[in-house]
Amino acid sequence: xxxxxxxxxxxxxxxxxxxxxxxxxxxxxxxxxxxxxxxxxxxxxxxxxxxxxxxxxxxxxxxxxxxxxxxxxxxxxxxxxxxxxxxxxxxxxxxxxxxxxxxxxxxxxxxxxxxxxxxxxxxxxxxxxxxxxxxxxxxxxxxxxxxxxxxxxxxxxxxxxxxxxxxxxxxxxxxxxxxxxxxxxxxxxxxxxxxxxxxxxxxxxxxxxxxxxxxxxxxxxxxxxxxxxxxxxxxxxxxxxxxxxxxxxxxxxxxxxxxxxxxxxxxxxxxxxxxxxxxxxxxxxxxxxxxxxxxxxxxxxxxxxxxxxxxxxxxxx
Amino acid sequence: xxxxxxxxxxxxxxxxxxxxxxxxxxxxxxxxxxxxxxxxxxxxxxxxxxxxxxxxxxxxxxxxxxxxxxxxxxxxxxxxxxxxxxxxxxxxxxxxxxxxxxxxxxxxxxxxxxxxxxxxxxxxxxxxxxxxxxxxxxxxxxxxxxxxxxxxxxxxxxxxxxxxxxxxxxxxxxxxxxxxxxxxxxxxxxxxxxxxxxxxxxxxxxxxxxxxxxxxxxxxxxxxxxxxxxxxxxxxxxxxxxxxxxxxxxxxxxxxxxxxxxxxxxxxxxxxxxxxxxxxxxxxxxxxxxxxxxxxxxxxxxxxxxxxxxxx
Amino acid sequence: xxxxxxxxxxxxxxxxxxxxxxxxxxxxxxxxxxxxxxxxxxxxxxxxxxxxxxxxxxxxxxxxxxxxxxxxxxxxxxxxxxxxxxxxxxxxxxxxxxxxxxxxxxxxxxxxxxxxxxxxxxxxxxxxxxxxxxxxxxxxxxxxxxxxxxxxxxxxxxxxxxxxxxxxxxxxxxxxxxxxxxxxxxxxxxxxxxxxxxxxxxxxxxxxxxxxxxxxxxxxxxxxxxxxxxxxxxxxxxxxxxxxxxxxxxxxxxxxxxxxxxxxxxxxxxxxxxxxxxxxxxxxxxxxxxxxxxxxxxxxxxxxxxxxxxxxxxxxxxxxxxxxxxxxxxxxxxxxxxxxxxxxxxxxxxxxxxxxxxxxxxxxxxxxxxxxxxxxxxxxxxxxxxxxxxxxxxxxxxxxxxxxxxxxxxxxxxxxxxxxxxxxxxxxxxxxxxxxxxxxxxxxxxxxxxxxxx
Lengths: 317, 312, 454
Description:
Radius of gyration of chain B: 26 Å
Structural class of chain A: mainly alpha
Strand content of chain A: under 5%
CATH superfamily of chain B: MetI-like
CATH architecture of the largest domain in chain A: Orthogonal Bundle
Oligomer: heterotrimer
CATH superfamily of the largest domain in chain A: MetI-like
Number of domains of chain B: 1
Number of helices of chain B: 14
Largest interface: A-B, 117 and 111 residues
Distance between the termini of chain A: 47 Å
């Protein structure tokens, strides 16, 4: 007998009139008070400082990337001789095409996506099932497991490098080495204590009454997980996903060690090796192509990125 | 009766047997735990234990490993390159702190006062963080071309400064690395500070003003103390992060020129992976264990010392 | 309860499929052929080169219907070689530099192919000093030399012309190299001379420079090796670099180069002259798009010292120790067909050259004989119509090297020796106040300590 279990997630609290809302978007005041703002000297100097800051941020933050875009469609000799000039000899769109087709950056691009997707999936599976078991099901050995997970937070990644590499060469149970397979990157990515902590703490904060109600209605652990807990966990799953995908996109040393054949390498591993074999203009075009997706994602999901970054800091604090 | 909480003293004694364990949901719980146990077990816990074990062995992947006690540790300590690597890592950490610790704070404080378009400021600040680190390093490697026509040298020539050797001289190589690392990482720190700054209780500022504080005093006596816990945590995280710096020295200069940018991580990598006739995995794991122990001890001392400083 | 029943079901399915999987991974049925995997080309090489290779494989399989050859992309890279060895992902037939031969033999990682090699028709013609790098102390053979090279001086004919120098009279002494470098730097603004400095290539080229001035990096053999890298010839070669860098300013402004990046800079027209293996033309054209018209190769200058010689090197074809006897036979047949026969058999030489030329690959790259000079010359005559490497531009190499002694690379702790010299060379080029004597003394004692420790 299976009954659809309806969950109404708790509504966010509405603030009454006159209540101050805390939070980055609606701070009433910062260091400078209202009366300070009214003084013209404060206003002018603050505006000037902010204008300078904006210019500096544009130059420092945007400048290098704009240069990269420009250089990616500039011929090599121009970039070498007059790097700061703006297309003295015209534009060379061919660079992008060459990078994509002849150098086959498209292959490595696809690999980066595959690596990120797999790592994301593994991390989500491990963090949600593990967090669920630790937080909701609470077996007797749960405390020990959680302590062991936390302990890994204090071990720097470098310690794992060599033994993990050897584990990939001779994995337990499986006969062959996992070298040059995507599993070599997907599986170790799942061992992120940070994710487990994030998810478990989120689950801890979910109202227990809903679980009780579901159990009373006859839900087993699987149903509880799939239909009750997961739908309520979208925010934290979003945060974990952002971190997971960014981490996979950026990773260099580990993929470099275990993915040694260009056909399977992600961009981060292939680009340094390419530097020796292709001309500067095509190389810069390849670099530009590699930045397109992360920046595009960032521009679209800006709020989400920034909020996750801030949240990550809050958790660490 | 819910199976989630077991009453401390149950009137009914349940027979402990595998069948009843399964019935009570023990098996399904284990199944849920399985992904975590397998992944962590094979790819985290086992390697950590193996690292310690391997640091006491001599392995070359072909013949079985032999136990050699502390020989690897002695070898690491007597390696003439170790001193340089440690000194360089320290140099990097200190430079990174000087450039990368106060600057994000100042920028964040300034940004917190921006009324309109703060999103734009945040986005611009965070943009370098979004660029994949490998791309950032390779791009800056082009910038750092030491020819007089290199991009940065060209810009310097606009203001009359002579071309710099950047990565080609021991004196300027490490600062060049730190400059790029700061560019790439400051944005994340800025955002974290910004989030903390905007959650400071405004009443505290009101109270300070009543006491006649000007802007500077408000920053010193309200803002900074409120940020204390975040500042302390980002400090230790930065130390732990910079102690393990690998990408910049590896891709920019591979430890050169003349070992002026070699770091501890680079040394570990070299031990393990740079000899085609067999890496010295014992030395590599020994050095990693040493680094881990050092960082753990440092963190412990740090937290003990700062426990009295951080606000609750 | 429902969930516990489900749980038992899941576990049962899991165990069952795991059982099925392990049954499936048992060996596939044999079709009677001997299968060998062979190293083909560096990953990322252009498709035309792979096509040429596949064509050769097809020819071989036609001539040997009982052998099945699987090409595997392969690159000898320090960071991944041992991993591949340990992980068993190396092809059955692969290539290693001459200097690695002895260690791998001692480690038991190479197959003993003595009987198969002795059965080859040209077995007696092998140059003994080249063959012995593939032998153990008892004379058993573990590899077949594939090619040999010596260090030569590569120069950019275009830059020579632009600097008012004659590209057909390249420098023959180190002093002339210095003068020419200065002229190139002054007239064209490009680096007149450059040497590799990174990833152990700095030590390699410094060794070449030392050998050309009559010095040796190591003395003695076996357990009793003395490191002598602080000899006078090394000092001379470093002083030479110091003069060019700091007095003449003829080495440009960038000094961190390894084999690949220096090739690339040269092909891009940024370097006037540099030393490297004589066989790099193939790589320069294939990977760096070198315009053959600007390429020149001459013999490295040597001093008047009686010990002055040129540094040689080469590659061995070897067979993995895991190969079965049938695979060893097949492997040696393949090596004979693909690499060696074109040096001793006219038909094979022409067939190989034809395929390469069709695919626009370099034919006739300068090389040293693995048998003797006469055999090499003969093989070049056979393929004369396909040669597309401009012979007139590289003839200075063979001419200049006539009668010179070839010396092998140092054998004890070679990589560590080279790495220590990397540091010294980088210091000389980037620090005006570098004390050469002090740096060499320190490097010497460091490497000696490593050699003594075994």
